[in-house]
Amino acid sequence: MPLTSRHLLGLQGVPKEDIQLILDTATTFREVLERPIKRVPTLQGKTIVNLFYENSTRTRISFELAEKRLSADSVNFAVSASSVSKGESFKDTMRNIEAMKVDMVVVRHSTAGAPLFLTKICDANVINAGDGIHEHPTQALLDMYSIREKLMKLEGLKVCIVGDISHSRVALSNIYGLKTMGAEVSVCGPLTMIPRFIEELGVKVIYDIDEAIQENDVLNVLRIQLERKAREYFPSIREYAKYFGITEERLEKNGKDILILHPGPINRGVELSSGVADGLNQIILRQVTNGVAVRMAVLYLLGTLN
Amino acid sequence: MKAVLKNINLLHPEQKINEKGVDILLIDGVITKIGNLTKEDSASAEVFNFSGKYVVPGLFDMHVHLREPGREDEETVITGCNAAASGGFTGIACMPNTEPAIDSAEVMELIHKQSSAHLVNVHIVGAATLGRKGEVISPMAELKDAGAVGFSDDGVAIKTASILKRALEYSKMFDMPIIEHCEDESLAGGAMNESINSTRLGLPPIPSIAEDLIVIRDIMVSEYTGGKIHIAHISTKKSIELVREAKKKGLKVTSEVSPHHFTLTDDAVKTYDTNTKMNPPLRTQEDLDEVYCGLKDGTIDCIASDHAPHSLEEKEEEFEHAPNGIIGLETEVGLALTELVHKKIINLEKLIEKMSINPRKILNIPIPKFEPGQTANFTILDIDEIWTVDLTKSKSKSKNSPFDKRLLTGKAVAVLNKQMMYYQDKYFKL
């Protein structure tokens, strides 16, 4: 059974069967990653461009590895090395790349909707690797994969996303994906970082981190952006760490076995204490490994559609 | 030239004229006789059979961006006037956010020179402050003498309450309005209305209070100074309620709405079509419903296009980077008839008040009269013609509109002004 769409732009509106298929396919590729020779010929002859308009070493490397392990030819197009700095429009850049006959484009862009725009001007399969504060579907898929791997299910689980929800593409994709898979989703963070109408997505809002710990099976803790602009949304790092940071004391106090995810990179001592970041509850590095398998699954399923 | 407009419906809300099936005799574009014409009257006249069409006082759009001087690649005075005539307008007021801003008699002169021979009357809204910077009020007396009909910092609200106070005090001497783009600077900068849609789409939000806060500031400063304030492109429920309250108190506050704000909600942004990006942004159904109430009860005095031409290159950028605004002169009448008159929000008479009479009243411009001796200043409307918007046929130099291919009911078929007529895509002397 193939996927219902030839692009992966986000998880909004993606049917349960598609998510299930991606996660199940990832399980197969996860096994490949444990082999001594971590390479399959699945996408041999396919050309993939990693179009990164925004710096993201981790996501790019994860995609690159996934592409290489599927034997695809991949090219990196990074903003600093490109003609974008020469004032070329997004559309022209894309047309040029398409003229080079590529099969798939993995795109990271600082503005929402850029991947959708791409699908209108080129024929390749488009995979969103993060657009503005909109979606980051492969991150959410790898989060779901990692939760499922650990807890054996998604349906009926209570998952809370903690941190700056307003400026997070990870949060929105997680909300859509988890809800589709039957999980109960809540968000927790300072109200200045929670979108005003988020409850209309069927998400509960929690202000108290202890309540979030008590009520949930999983915490997906987001990175707090420490750049100047994001810093205007909370009083101080000290205050954030004190009232929203996850520490061992907090976990102990609430006496709960809870699974902790983080998309990385971690601000140690801010959203997670070092003890928690390295502790028994977290699966942070596992997420990174799974990320490659999930991206292989997405590339494979889309790349073999046509 | 002798011309007869035959079998028309004559409608003039201000003169309380509403007659069906009359003829008008024009000699050299001047109204000579209205009523039943004799054979002698019509002898050797060119006869235009406008059976069933409405002749109304020439429509007026008080919020148009002509882009000249500065961005002639997007619109010039002439192409803007052509779009106005084709959309059914005999008069427009152009806004001062040009480069340089219209803050001197010299820039006004340049625009007047371009427009003087055109059928469409171009009136100018001067900048309220020098360079629209919100620091020093503009030479309003000089601008008035050069023909300005109002003042605005257009595109932004006047920066501080203290400068607004001065602008209102100064303009009060001439009984001229300050036209405000109401947006609190500290809350501005987003790409769409703050709603569940902005969250879903991941676009930086503009909260509705950004508009409301400046509306209430402006109303209060207007009340304090006694100066006239006109709220441009009103779009939120709360702002309309505030204007309604102000009007109840008898304050000198008026307002206008743009066709896209009574036609579309922010649901239209879902495709990231940059032609749905405007400022103020498209709002919610709740706001639209209040717009209808405001149009009905007179809180909203005028309909104005906020015609904002932008080049294709600019509108093809990513949504967050694309400029705000759409062209509107040629879809305004069709949208107003379709969305307001045919859906029975307001009747045709009220619509003509809002598109012809009220804007002129606000800007102290004489209202065209239907009586012998007057030069004809008419718009001829076919309120039932069904047509499809085709941007390739637009007279504007830019094509940025979300209404391409939209089916509309009702349009302007001709305009007459300055002893000229525009009909079937042609201008000719009367």
Walk me through this protein's architecture.
The complex is a heterodimer of chains A (306) and B (430). Chain A is α/β, with parallel strands linked by helices. Chain A has two domains: 16-136 and 288-303, Aspartate/ornithine carbamoyltransferase (Rossmann fold); 138-284, Aspartate/ornithine carbamoyltransferase (Rossmann fold). In chain A, 41% of the residues lie in helices and 15% in strands. In chain A, the strands form two sheets. A five-stranded parallel sheet of chain A has the order 7-6-5-8-9. In chain A, strands 2-1-3-4 form a four-stranded parallel sheet, sandwiched between helices. The longest helix of chain A has 20 residues, at 284-303. Chain A is globular. The mean pLDDT of chain A is 92. Chain B is 29% helix and 25% strand. Chain B is globular, with a radius of gyration of 21 Å. The mean pLDDT of chain B is 97.
> What is the average per-residue confidence, as pLDDT of chain B, rounded to a whole number?
97
Q: Name the poorly predicted regions of chain A.
A: none
How does the overall form of chain B come out from the CA principal axes? globular
The multimeric state of the shown protein is heterodimer
Q: Number of helical runs of chain A? A: 12
CATH architecture of the largest domain in chain A: 3-Layer(aba) Sandwich
Task: Compile the SSE list and pairings.
The complex is a heterodimer of chains A (306) and B (430).
Chain A: H1 16-32, E1 47-52, H2 57-69, E2 73-78, H3 90-99, E3 104-109, H4 114-121, E4 125-131, H5 137-151, E5 158-162, H6 169-180, E6 184-188, E7 204-206, H7 209-215, E8 218-221, H8 228-231, H9 237-244, H10 248-253, E9 259-261, H11 274-277, H12 284-303
Parallel strand pairs in A: 1-2, 1-3, 3-4, 5-6, 5-8, 6-7, 8-9
Helix pairs in contact in A: 1-5, 1-12, 2-12, 5-6, 5-12
Chain B: E1 2-12, E2 17-27, E3 30-35, H1 39-42, E4 46-49, E5 54-57, E6 59-64, H2 77-87, E7 89-94, H3 105-115, E8 121-127, H4 140-145, E9 148-152, H5 161-172, E10 178-180, E11 192-193, H6 196-201, E12 205-206, H7 209-225, E13 229-231, H8 237-248, E14 253-257, H9 259-263, H10 285-297, E15 302-303, H11 312-315, H12 332-341, H13 348-362, E16 378-388, E17 407-417, E18 420-423, E19 426-429
Parallel strand pairs in B: 1-4, 1-5, 6-7, 7-8, 8-9, 9-10, 10-13, 11-12, 13-14, 14-15
Antiparallel strand pairs in B: 1-2, 2-3, 5-16, 16-17, 17-18, 18-19
Helix pairs in contact in B: 5-7, 7-8, 8-10
